[in-house]
Amino acid sequence: MAIAETVNNKKQPKQGMLENVMKQFDAAASLVNLNPNIKKILAVTNNELIIHFPVRMDNGDVEIFKGYRVQHNNALGPYKGGLRYHPTIDIDAVKALAMWMTWKTSLAGLPYGGAKGGIQLDPSKYSNAELERITRRFAYALGENIGPEHDIPAPDVNTNAQTMAWIADTYMSTKAPSERSKNQHVVTGKPIGSGGLEGRDRATGFGVFLTIKYWAAHKNVSLKDKTFIVQGFGNVGYWAAHFLEKEGAKMVGVQDAFGSITNAEGISVENLFIHTKNNQGRIEGFPNTSTIDKEAFFGINCDIFIPAALGNQITKYNANDIKAFLIAEGANGPTTVEAEEMLLNKGVDIIPDILCNSGGVIGSYFEWLQNRNGELWELDEILIKLDKKLKEVFRKVLETSESKVLDLRSAAYVIAIERIEKAYIQRGIFP
Ligand SMILES: NC(=O)C1=CN([C@@H]2O[C@H](COP(=O)(O)OP(=O)(O)OC[C@H]3O[C@@H](n4cnc5c(N)ncnc54)[C@H](O)[C@@H]3O)[C@@H](O)[C@H]2O)C=CC1
Ligand SMILES: O=C(O)CCC(=O)C(=O)O
């Protein structure tokens, strides 16, 4: 609560993600009348690891980094969740993100629990060689706190297939030669050729698109010529926009960490993607668009808003500016509880993060299975399997939402929490 954000040049108190996820959990626990002992277990994390580790920089100096891995719950299987490299990462943020992973894997019916981790750093300040040493040193320090049947990291903000390859290689190098290849699935989201899954790169964004498509089919709405805005034009934002554009929708606004652009006539997703590749990942300077300020971005006229950046972006300070009738949460925790209430009251539908962006972890599950079984899956079959799995999860959320008269997030939480509760009750509550 101590941090502040600036809205319309005024400092406003900023709510932390942990506070947000706890409010969501408390509300859902009441809805399902959750067993009080299980509620106590789920309200806290199982393990929290903070590691300070030294790394030699290119100039010869040693810098100390702070890395995190939080394992929230493993009632349903090994801990699973991404690694984020970002200056705002702290223990509370990682706890919140780990909790969301527990609900997400449970909702998707996967044999996983929830975890998250990362390093508090701004990766743009380091060379590629430094990032490799930082990542390898972090992986080494994590040691047996991760493992292919225990806790399986994956990419998140500012990490990618290369990061995962360094972690897999470092982890495997600590094993006896005959054991190394059996440990490839210590991480998912690896490069193709190093055990990675065809299509894991687009799995999250494709899943975001699919959930929008299922929602549109349910509401009898055509996506053709619908307009959309995207906050965050990285892995998730780009791929979601790519598939929406292919479906005939038009991107009219984009925001990244460095600025916001708009054009009511449309912004080409593929041209912007090429532009960012040649511009250090940034959207700034893209031709035929106007630059607008951070807060004006939320008020752009559009039908669909895809937050695909950081948490707590849609707040009570900007919720009323939003024109979209649908928010599809590609990011984790982009909407505060207060903002959600305001949006629902004005009739905006929200496809919640734990459903909307679950294509990523479903893709990771496929990669894990592929590695475990020594198989190689093809892109077409993977995208079909992902569609089938996500469609079924979406159907269940919709059914619960209609039968219990709940918004989509509450319905998703009900399914997720009831599945975990059932596992504890079958086993005798305490793990
Ligand atoms: N990569 C994955 O498979 C999954 C990612 N997610 C979530 O999706 C979100 C985005 O992740 P990725 O696309 O992987 O990250 P990324 O690192 O590929 O891209 C992040 C994008 O967000 C922008 N951004 C960062 N701070 C911002 C700010 N303050 N305002 C506006 N834009 C900002 C960056 O400039 C960049 O364009 C995160 O919340 C992540 O937890 C969720 C499920 C899976
Ligand atoms: O693919 C995974 O294991 C998890 C990705 C992730 O961090 C997320 O879904 O938020």
From TrEMBL:
Keyword field contains Oxidoreductase: yes
Coiled coil: none
InterPro entries (UniProt xref): Aminoacid_DH-like_N_sf, Glu/Leu/Phe/Val/Trp_DH, Glu/Leu/Phe/Val/Trp_DH_C, Glu/Leu/Phe/Val/Trp_DH_dimer, Glu/Leu/Phe/Val_DH_AS, Glu_DH, NAD(P)-bd_dom_sf, NAD_bind_Glu_DH
SMART domains on file: ELFV_dehydrog
Domain of life: Bacteria
Oxidoreductase is among the record's keywords: yes
Pfam families: ELFV_dehydrog, ELFV_dehydrog_N
Glutamate/phenylalanine/leucine/valine/L-tryptophan dehydrogenase C-terminal domain sequence ranges: 197-428
Keywords (A to Z) from UniProt: Oxidoreductase
PANTHER family associated with the record: GLUTAMATE DEHYDROGENASE, GLUTAMATE DEHYDROGENASE 1, MITOCHONDRIAL
Family, similarity comment: Belongs to the Glu/Leu/Phe/Val dehydrogenases family.
Name of this protein: Glutamate dehydrogenase
Protein species of origin: Corallibacter vietnamensis
